[in-house]
Design a protein that fits this description.
Helix content: 25-40%
Radius of gyration: 32 Å
Number of helices: 25
Number of strands: 29
CATH topology of the largest domain: Topoisomerase I, domain 2
Shape: globular
Largest sheet: 7 strands, mixed
Distance between the termini: 55 Å
Strand order of the largest sheet: 2-3-4-1-7-8-9
Number of domains: 6
Length: 763
């Protein structure tokens, strides 16, 4: 008997129907020589600390770090799960071959392998690898079953990820909870969730501490088109004011028109993160909502496998494109122009090198009635797919220069010459017209204009939304707008496309972050936790991204699971020692508790800084003057004063409130001491005068170059598969492959010094 094991009952039902296993049994389907059974997601899980040593049950610093010599799995302690596991095991005991039909990804491989291992199955295993649940895809998948060993590295990567999360998550959570947690407060720390939280907290602080700088802009409106002064903004009002008065006296004249013909390519196909970003921006869906919707679309057979990180298709999909387009009858107005000719094939869409386990999310061609939210998501997936086969949009990028009283102004825009793919997304009922479309100007034309000279302020960065937070996770915190560059950085992103939504939801659930309309903001607890964690490795998105890169290298067979786990154990050991040695205790309380306490205080005292008592005399109340805060008891001798400005920097009421209540402001930027700008926080000295406590930072180690050990002239550079010499064009053939370096590292922590010693030949 052939036993197929799927990841959930609904998928098992689809597979059973194709295989002819039509008889429903308790926990499986049977027929035609097959038994098709299923798990409920994670049927098995890593053992808990207490399963290894009984005293590890206690949350005690003396029990840390917890580093099991060998990691083991167990059946999840749930009666329904245990029952299903026993059914699966009994089928395995009768099986001639087991076919792993788990989701075609790292997690799907891990889930099913754990079940097989725990059931002690030793027989032949084959792998079903499909990208959609259509009948055709399932039939084709069973014709092309692969040996399970082809996916061993995928399993090792998944196993390593789980162990890494166990080691850091359990040890760090207990460590910070016991060391810094308040009453019944668990401080959850994780390999991916903590750097994600740190990104939100750091962005919030950057905005809070932002010191806006004034500037002035000279613009003029001519024929409903806004022209800006060519040399940009003014930092001094008087410089621009003179020109503003000058241009009022003259008509505006078009000086030159420059047009450059160009192409605009269709938007890329969706990967999961791209789809989540789009749906959050356009529809307001959370990342988790979008994932659930597109997963439902996949299970309804209308789109391909969604948990993907590529926007490309393999070349073998191209012959199927025409068939898919023909089946999309609801979109016949858009597909008809494509079907009458050869389908366009572009390397911006089809690229085997850019596709790993799965390709971009596309429609299967099957159509069905969908719920409103499902239809919205399905519609944009379909339209993206159709659009990439249309012609490019041809535009004329236009720059227009004009002048008034010899003062030159500029505007830029475009003229759409051929719509191409844009027709797919046209909406005649759209309220907003596309910006940047210019009217037709002629050189030498003149007319009246409306100049304006406005004072503006520099703006801080925007708070994160779920869309921008997902992008930040994808690029390890780096602001990247260019799609090509973003693709290159995905290897070092934090988390996986399939888990990022869950990470964000976990932070909401643990009340480390909160929603303010579309904004994602940190809570008091979230800020306190990040402020308490001194270890940069735990908070760094970039460094966490390097772990993700190692996991991807395990998947490719370029790094070992043993080395990854060994490095994680070393890191956890060092972290425990570091935190246990800390002398201060944060005593962090839950955000909700803090809010309730604060509300009670506010009810008694009133609102704002003027409700606070004087910290010096303890008798008067804080009062607000023209340039400073003072004490209401000044007539009886209290001389307490807080100037609105300190070190040429304006201090907000919010920061003064924090100083009065907590003894210091947060770290602020922009204090001036002579000609030097300083960063730090404000406290009171012994006489309750303001004093600046400069921020102390450790000097970053400067990167250093390694001179080529062969020619002694060039420097060692890193290529795709080996290290070489920068003077290779001059004849130096120094080369050391990555495999050679890995062999010599042999499980050691791969520090820069170690690698350099290997390249120098000293190891």
């Amino acid at each position: 008997m052939k036993v197929c094991i799927a990841e959930k009952p609904s998928v098992a039902r689809e597979i059973a129907a194709v295989l002819g296993a039509s008889t429903k049994r308790d926990g499986y389907f049977e027929g035609n020589g097959y038994a098709v059974t299923y798990t409920f997601g994670h049927l098995c899980t890593l053992k808990e600390p207490v399963d290894y040593k009984s005293y590890w049950k206690s949350w005690d610093l003396n029990n840390l770090p917890m580093l099991p010599e060998k990691f083991e799995i167990k059946v999840s302690p749930n009666s329904g799960i245990k029952k299903q596991f026993n059914i699966v095991k009994s089928l395995f005991d009768k099986a001639d071959v087991v076919i792993n039909c788990g989701d075609a990804g790292q997690e799907g491989e891990l889930i099913q392998r754990w079940v097989m291992n725990e059931a002690n199955y030793k027989g032949e295993v084959q792998r079903l690898w499909i990208s959609s649940l259509t009948t055709e895809a399932i039939k084709e998948g069973f014709k092309n079953l692969k040996p399970s060993k082809d996916y061993d590295n995928l399993y090792y990567a998944g196993f390593s990820r789980s162990i890494g999360d166990w080691l850091l998550g359990i040890n760090a959570t207990r460590l910070y909870t016991v060391k810094h947690g308040g009453y019944k407060q668990v401080l959850s720390v994780g390999r991916v969730q903590t750097p994600t939280l740190a990104m939100v907290v750091n962005r919030f602080k950057d905005i809070e501490n932002f010191n806006p700088q004034p500037y002035w802009e000279l613009q003029t409106l001519y024929r409903d088109t806004l022209f800006s002064y060519e040399d940009g903004r003014f930092l001094k009002k008087e410089d621009g004011e003179a020109l503003a008065n000058k241009v009022k006296e003259s008509d505006f004249e078009i000086q030159s028109i420059t047009k450059k013909k160009g192409k605009e390519y269709a938007p890329k196909l969706f990967d999961l993160t791209g789809l989540q970003v789009y749906c959050n921006t356009k529809f307001g869906f959370s990342a988790d909502e979008t994932l659930k919707i597109v997963q439902a679309l996949y299970e309804r057979k209308v789109v391909t496998y969604p948990r993907v990180d590529t926007t490309f298709l393999p070349n073998d999909v191209y012959p199927k494109v025409s068939g898919i387009l023909q089946k999309l009858t609801s979109y016949s107005k858009l597909t008809q122009p494509l079907l009458g000719k050869k389908i366009k094939k572009s390397t911006k869409v089809f690229n085997d090198k850019k596709v790993t386990d799965h390709h971009a999310i596309i429609p299967t061609g099957m159509q069905t009635n969908l719920q409103y939210n499902q239809q919205q998501v399905y519609d944009i997936i379909v339209k993206r797919f159709i659009a990439v086969f249309y012609d490019d949009c041809i535009v004329a990028n236009t720059t227009v220069l004009g002048h008034a009283a010899k003062v030159v102004f500029r505007t830029t825009g475009k003229e759409i010459l051929e719509k191409g793919w844009r027709v797919v997304f046209e909406n005649p009922n759209a309220k907003e017209k596309e910006s940047g479309i210019l009217p037709t100007f002629e050189k030498g034309e003149k007319g009246p204009h409306e100049p304006s000279f406005l004072e503006k302020e520099t703006k801080p960065p925007n708070q994160f939304t779920e869309a921008t937070l997902l992008r930040a996770m994808e690029t390890a915190g780096k602001q990247v707008d260019d799609e090509e560059l973003r693709d290159l950085m995905k290897e070092n992103g934090i988390g996986r496309p399939s888990t990022r939504a869950n990470i964000i939801e976990t932070l909401f659930r643990r009340k480390y972050i909160k929603r303010n309309k579309k904004q994602v903001l940190p809570t008091v607890t979230g800020i306190q936790l990040i402020d308490t964690i001194q270890n940069d490795l735990l908070k760094s998105a970039e460094l966490t991204g390097s772990w993700e890169k190692q996991l991807k290298d395990i998947e490719k067979g370029e790094f070992t699971a043993g080395a990854f786990i060994k490095n994680m154990k070393h890191m956890v050991d060092a972290l425990v020692y570091e935190v246990r040695s800390e002398t201060k205790r944060a005593n962090i309380s839950h955000a909700v508790t803090v809010k309730k306490r604060a509300a009670k205080v506010e009810a008694k005292k009133g609102v704002g800084i003027t409700s606070e008592s004087c910290p010096k005399c303890k008798q008067g109340q804080i009062i607000k003057g023209k340039s400073a805060y003072g004490c209401s008891a000044y007539k009886t001798g209290c001389n307490f004063v807080m100037s609105f400005k300190f070190g040429d920097k304006k201090i907000s009421e919010k920061q003064f409130l924090r100083l009065l209540r907590k003894g210091s402001t947060v770290n602020l930027k922009g204090f001036k001491t002579g000609s030097v700008t300083t960063e730090g926080l404000l406290r009171f000295d012994d006489n309750f005068k303001l004093k600046l406590e400069p921020k102390t930072t450790l000097a970053k180690a400067k990167p250093y170059e390694l001179t080529c050990p062969k020619c002694k002239k060039g420097t060692v550079i890193k290529g795709k598969a080996a290290y070489g010499c920068s003077d290779y064009k001059s004849g130096c053939d120094f080369k050391v492959t990555f495999d050679t370096v890995r062999a010599k590292i042999d499980g050691q922590t791969p520090t820069r010094e170690l690698v350099h010693n290997i390249l120098n030949g000293s190891i």
